[in-house]
Amino acid sequence: MLTSWLLTGALAFSAPAPIPAAQAFKLPTALRCVAHRSLTLSLRPVKGATWTGATVKVGARPFKAVDRVAAKRPVRLHRLPRGRLDLEIKAKTSDGRKAEVERRYQTCVDTRPVIAAPTGTPPTTLQQRDLVTGSVRRARNGDTVTVQYSLVTWSDGKAVDSSWDRGQPFTFPLGAGQVIPGFDQGIKGMKVGGRRQLVIPPDLAYGDEGAGDEIKPGETALFVIDLVAIDPK
């Protein structure tokens, strides 16, 4: 009986408790698309132990092995596959503890859209088409969203505005009325890393007055939009 108890006790204490993922890993938020197919992984310091290494899988396939030395500094994951990324990381410490995390990411499109000049009669209702679907989370009213966009006017196919030209994405609260109605309505439901084309009729765009010298009265607006990030409400 005593021998049995001792064996049971030894087995009970042979496997140290795992380290929670939040205490073990420092990773980018999944609510921002992965730019340039590259992200940085860091292993957080562990009291009383050191990391002996980690393994990274993407889509259940081995992607990178991190040794003891590399585990002490941020690790850059380069040339990740395009599209949706199901990332799995497992790590071990010198005292036998383990940590693991699974997270889904989406790469950014990373290329400026080329918009062909529209032809034919412009539609009279809001039209939307996903060119890249994206993944992770859908944009909802109340979220703060960050987008890249290009705008072409339907009547002459002229490029009149682009966040790509300014070298900085555009951030705004979705559904708060701070942009034209068709922009608000058309981005709703997009997923992180997605690219969507919107054709916005005048009543949901710039109306009978137009905007400045570039957008004529009664103009139909053609946008191509990339959803870069979501900051939930």
From TrEMBL:
| Keyword terms of this UniProt record | Isomerase, Rotamase, Signal
SUPFAM superfamilies linked: FKBP-like
- Family label: Belongs to the FKBP-type PPIase family.
Tell me which EC number(s) this protein carries: 5.2.1.8
What Gene Ontology terms describe what this protein does at the molecular function level? peptidyl-prolyl cis-trans isomerase activity
Residue ranges of domain PPIase FKBP-type in the record: 142-231
Q: What is this protein called?
A: Peptidyl-prolyl cis-trans isomerase
- The superkingdom of the source organism is Bacteria
* Catalytic activity annotation: [protein]-peptidylproline (omega=180) = [protein]-peptidylproline (omega=0)
- Lineage, please? Bacteria, Bacillati, Actinomycetota, Thermoleophilia, Solirubrobacterales
UniProt entry tagged with the keyword Nucleotide-binding: no
UniProt organism field: Solirubrobacter ginsenosidimutans
Report the leader peptide range: 1-21
